Each structure stands twice: as C-alpha cells, then as structure tokens.
C-alpha cells in the first residue's frame, strides 16, 4: 500500500530521515515510535507530500507518490496533524465537512457522517457541531482533528500523536474506537506516538526510529521477545504485553472433559480456571489446542526483562 525505498530528507548537512525502507500493507495498523526529533513527523509528512523527499522513492498503491495529483491523493489519505490546525472562522461542522464537500458528497450524507463521528469521539453532535474552535478545549480540538481525518472515509489515515492531549480515559476510548474502526473497514493506518504502551496496544507492527534511522520493525511480540539492540531494549524498558490463551497453546489432542476458553482469554482468567482444571480447550470457530499450567508458565517466561 505504502512503500518507502531508501528515502532520505536532509536539512542543511543533517539528515532528519536517513535512508529508510519499509512497507506498510493494506489494512495494517503501523505505528512509528521513537524519541523526540528522530524523524517521525518528517516521515509521515513525506507520504502526503507536505515535505518533499531529498532522495529515494515513496510508492502509494504501486506508483511513486509524485505520479498522483496532489488533491486526489490527499483525499485518499486522511491526516491528523501533530499541531491541530482547525480553521478558526469555521464551525466544527464546516471544518469537518471540507474534504467530503470536495468529494461532492450530498449534504445529507455529510451531516450523517459528521454526527456519527462526533458522537463516536464523545462530543455529542447536538452540542458541538455548531461551535467554533475557540469554544473548545485543546483535547476537544484534537478529537475534531481525528474526526476530520476520518470524515471522507479515506482508505489510508496518517495520525501524528493524535491522542497526546487527552486524559487517560478518553484516550483509551478513542484507541478502542480506532481499533474497532480499523477491524471493521480495513483502513490502513500509520500512527505516530511517543507512548510504548499505546504502540503495543494498537500496532500490528511497530517501527522504532532513532536519529532518522530504523532501529527495528516488528510485531509487539517481536519487540519483547527479540529486541535487536540495546537501544530497543532500553526503549521498551519493562513494558510487557498482556498474554492471552492464544499465546499459551500446546498442541494436545482435544479432550471433551475440560472446559473451553476463547483465544483472547487473558492469562489472569486462565489462572483462575487452571486452579481447578488440568487443561483448557482453546476454541474459536474450531479447536486450536490446549492450555495447561506449564504452557502458561512457559509463555510468561518469554520476554521477561533480564
Ligand atoms: N524545517 C526544518 N528545518 C530544519 N530541520 C528540521 C526541520 N523540520 C524538522 N527538522 C529536524 O528534523 C529532525 C526530525 O524532526 P521531526 O519533526 O520529524 O521529529 P519527530 O520524531 O516528529 O519529533 P517529535 O516526537 O518531537 O514530534 C529534528 O532534528 C528536527 O529538528
Ligand atoms: Mg513529531
């Protein structure tokens, strides 16, 4: 869907992004993380051509981004800026409606979509759609920024620390909504964050950057089980990923005497059940294997920080 081929961005003598290559697949939730100044925003802005490349290629759907008409490409790529930039003289509704209007959606369709999204992010539309940005808190403006990026249903969404100004509860809720949205309609999302817990929760894969280069790309599990440098290890620190039944499976034959659990049953729940049972059957649409006390301990012992 989006491919970086040896891309660099140089300012003066300093590379903000230093010859990076990676590919984001369609429908993937891809997280860019790394210390301040490592090049995350620059990487994101090069995708929709807010920043021109110094060298290399970025492909969008198999064509270099320079082959696309700028407007059309931007309609296909929703973008949540790190610094919220709402039009101050427009209401919330009109701020959100810009791209759907350019795509010539009917007014009814636009308003339906806006109301639905405002409600989704916890800003009831009756109350908020006719306000001006100056009548919103910073966190509320940030949520409008998220809604604006989603409004025209773009297949690709770039999000630069979209939840950084939110309290933990709103933040968790929006994370859940975003995951839900992505699983329902298969969006490709590139998401920048500073927060390793957020990265682990949201990312199918995570790309950890450092001084314009890529330190490691992989699943959250790869980072915990196989950090490939001291930098990666110290960056993830003591963060653990919660394990589920699916992570503890042993390939034992099905035994109907034992109870069934779903693959997403958390380990804490398995403990309780295993206090009384020798074995649990992991079943979703079919039998996946068994969980036993040793298999749970084995799974937990992986990735424990040394
Ligand atoms: N217009 C510019 N001119 C010169 N240097 C720049 C410019 N924009 C960014 N940089 C430099 O490029 C590097 C990467 O910046 P970038 O904004 O991509 O970092 P970031 O990873 O998004 O950081 P943060 O987490 O603080 O948002 C930084 O060292 C920054 O100072
Ligand atoms: Mg940034």
UniProtKB/TrEMBL annotation:
Family to which the UniProt record says this protein belongs: Belongs to the ABC transporter superfamily.
EC number, UniProt record: 7.6.2.9
Quaternary assembly: The complex is composed of two ATP-binding proteins (OpuCA), two transmembrane proteins (OpuCB and OpuCD) and a solute-binding protein (OpuCC).
Catalytic activity: a quaternary ammonium(out) + ATP + H2O = a quaternary ammonium(in) + ADP + phosphate + H(+)
Protein name: Carnitine transport ATP-binding protein OpuCA
Domain ABC transporter, chain residue ranges per copy: 2-236
GO MF term set: ABC-type quaternary ammonium compound transporting activity; ATP binding; ATP hydrolysis activity
InterPro entries found in the cross-reference section: AAA+_ATPase, ABC_transporter-like_ATP-bd, ABC_transporter-like_CS, P-loop_NTPase
UniProt keyword list: ATP-binding, Nucleotide-binding, Transport
Pfam families: ABC_tran
Keyword Nucleotide-binding assigned: yes
Domain of life: Bacteria
């Amino acid at each position: 869907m989006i491919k970086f081929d040896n891309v660099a961005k140089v300012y003066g003598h300093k590379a903000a992004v230093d010859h990076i290559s990676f590919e984001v697949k369609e429908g993937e939730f891809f997280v860019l993380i790394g210390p301040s100044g490592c090049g995350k925003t620059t990487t994101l802005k090069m995708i929709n051509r807010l920043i021109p490349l110094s060298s290399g290629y970025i492909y969008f759907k198999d064509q270099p981004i320079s082959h696309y008409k700028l407007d059309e490409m931007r309609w296909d790529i929703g973008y949540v800026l790190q610094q919220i930039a709402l039009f101050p003289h427009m209401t919330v509704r009109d701020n959100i409606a810009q791209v759907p209007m350019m795509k010539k959606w009917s007014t009814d369709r636009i308003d339906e979509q806006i109301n639905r999204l405002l409600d989704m992010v916890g800003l009831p539309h009756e109350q908020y759609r006719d306000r001006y940005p100056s009548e919103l808190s910073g966190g509320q403006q940030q949520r409008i920024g998220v809604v604006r990026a989603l409004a025209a249903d773009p297949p690709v969404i770039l999000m630069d620390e979209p939840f950084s100004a939110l309290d933990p509860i709103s933040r968790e809720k929006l994370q859940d909504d975003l995951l839900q949205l992505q699983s329902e309609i298969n969006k490709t999302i590139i998401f920048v964050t500073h927060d390793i817990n957020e990265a682990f929760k949201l990312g199918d894969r995570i790309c950890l950057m450092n001084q314009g280069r890529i330190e490691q790309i992989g699943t959250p599990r790869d980072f915990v089980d196989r950090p490939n440098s001291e930098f990666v290890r110290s960056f993830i620190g003591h963060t653990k990923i919660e394990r589920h039944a699916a992570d503890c499976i042993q390939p034992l034959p099905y035994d109907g005497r034992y109870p069934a659990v779903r693959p997403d049953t958390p380990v804490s729940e398995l403990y309780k059940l295993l206090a009384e049972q020798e074995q649990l059957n992991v079943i979703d649409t079919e039998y996946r294997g068994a969980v036993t006390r040793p298999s749970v301990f084995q799974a937990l012992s992986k990735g424990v920080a040394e």
